[in-house]
Amino acid sequence: xxxxxxxxxxxxxxxxxxxxxxxxxxxxxxxxxxxxxxxxxxxxxxxxxxxxxxxxxxxxxxxxxxxxxxxxxxxxxxxxxxxxxxxxxxxxx
Length: 93
Prior knowledge:
This is Ankyrin. This protein has 93 residues and is mostly helical.
């Protein structure tokens, strides 16, 4: 289901840093690269919000597209840079 500020449940859980919900949604087949909402996708949401250890690594391990474009911040690297999250920037590079 799409809609609202976050666009879908995976992006909302990623933005808020809810690891167990992200894992559950991915295990149940959520589209890791689905586009929509303010952030564009789950990786950009987690990158902007600074959830490096918990969410960004998990999404990357599960195949999130680090170069996907969309949302307000354009891509995950820009989102992490804008959010001031140096470790995530390093991880994404």
